[in-house]
Specification:
Number of domains: 1
Helix content: 25-40%
Structural class: alpha/beta
Largest sheet: 8 strands, mixed
Radius of gyration: 21 Å
Distance between the termini: 16 Å
Strand order of the largest sheet: 5-4-10-11-12-9-14-13
Number of helices: 14
């Protein structure tokens, strides 16, 4: 029998809610403390690759998610200069067949709503809203438990409770996020694909959101100086001019799409350096532990994987501290590989000149099935026993 019977989770985002559900499957109770009075997610869409959707399916959430998401037929890389396709990775039924789980795209708020409904229906989960927690001591006083789980995001207040944990730092990139209604969408946006348009020092990702009947657009570009403080905000006139300027030389249709964006939000991209995640009593998960830039589209997936493994090790724990250290060791190796993939994508997506020409040539020579095989380690991942 596990030595852990209860946990306190700070943060009711994707990491915290998934962890509570996964722990409940192991017979471990969780009390979630969330500072917001109500959960109102922002950030528009996200991609749930098979390594994440497999875990959510094991938690009994696949039917609820399938009713809300779209499963794209393929993942497409295209030129941001000419709009010409460069390469394609099969998704849709091919993803289910190859990796044993679906690849879905949906609004972030939809995933959070599905998780929240499941948490509220689970007797072993308790959720307290409007509870601002500034320290590990405050969390333990508010909800005493065997283990404290910090799932409070990239700006984690509890990170300071773990010696060796490092603060978030600006990545040198910003993301602009906005929606384009289907009825107003230009023809080059494919409603059956996740498309990444590649160009010098920038890239743009587009995919459909069934719930909003709109395309989710994420435009990412290098910006050495971080925007003013704040997690995200509507871009002012000067900021919007910098957005269009960052895509200078790109296809005119993409530049028009950016210049006509409705209420775009600018999102400075921060990541967490490779610091400590646990002191044997408190453990960081999700963005609190290893926030990463979205060049591999794996931020949510890594949080979900964290939750699954943490529940597994705590469900078998005879020594809590040892179990948390084993969790950190196992997850650190996985996250490092995903980070490495993201760094490679950043280099490849934002390449220019001869490097971009070489990239395009190499991609044109790869068959879809060969490209899919490159993702077996990522999308075919299963939580270790």
């Amino acid at each position: 029998m596990s030595s852990v019977r209860s946990t306190t989770i700070v943060g009711a985002g994707i990491a915290g809610l998934t962890a509570a559900l996964a722990l409940a499957r192991k017979g471990i109770a969780s009390h979630i403390l969330e500072q917001a009075p109500a959960l109102e997610e922002v950030g528009a869409g996200l991609q749930l690759s098979p390594n994440a959707s497999r875990i959510l399916a094991e938690l009994g959430l696949l039917d609820a998610l399938s009713a809300r998401w779209t499963e794209p037929d393929h993942i497409l890389l295209a030129s941001g200069l000419s709009l010409a396709p460069l390469a394609s990775v099969p998704a849709g039924q091919a993803a289910r067949s190859r990796w044993g789980a679906p690849y879905g795209v949906l609004h972030r708020a939809s995933l959070q709503a599905v998780l929240l409904d499941a948490v509220r229906a689970e007797p072993l989960c308790t959720l307290t809203m409007g509870e601002r927690i500034e320290s590990a001591d405050a969390a333990r006083a508010a909800a005493p438990a065997d283990v404290l789980i910090a799932a409070d995001g990239v700006w984690s207040r509890l990170r300071q409770a773990v010696p060796g944990a490092l603060p978030a730092r600006y990545s040198g990139n910003v993301a602009w996020r906005f929606l384009v209604p289907y009825a107003a969408a230009p023809r080059f946006l494919d409603p059956r694909a996740v498309t990444a348009f590649l160009g010098p020092r920038a890239h743009l990702v587009a995919y459909p959101l069934a719930e909003t009947q709109a395309f989710n657009i994420v435009a990412i570009h290098a910006q050495p100086k971080a925007p003013p403080e704040g997690w995200l905000r509507k871009g002012d006139i000067a900021a919007r001019e910098s957005l269009v300027a960052a895509f200078a030389g790109w296809n005119t249709e993409i530049r028009r799409l950016l210049s006509e964006a409705r209420e775009p939000l600018i999102w400075p991209l921060f990541g967490c350096p490779d610091g400590a995640w646990t002191d044997g009593k408190t453990v960081l998960i999700g963005d609190a532990a290893h926030a990463m830039t979205p060049f591999a589209a794996q931020g949510a997936a890594m949080a979900i994987e964290d939750a699954a493994l943490l529940a597994r090790v705590l469900g078998q724990a005879s020594d809590t501290g040892e179990a948390l250290r084993d969790f950190e060791k196992t997850r650190r190796a996985r996250v490092a590989r995903v980070r490495s993939r993201g760094a490679f994508n950043r280099f490849a997506y934002h390449a220019r000149g001869p490097v971009a020409l070489a990239r395009n040539l190499v991609l044109s020579m790869r068959k879809p099935e060969s490209l899919a095989a490159d993702f077996d380690w990522l999308y075919g991942y299963r939580t270790p026993d």
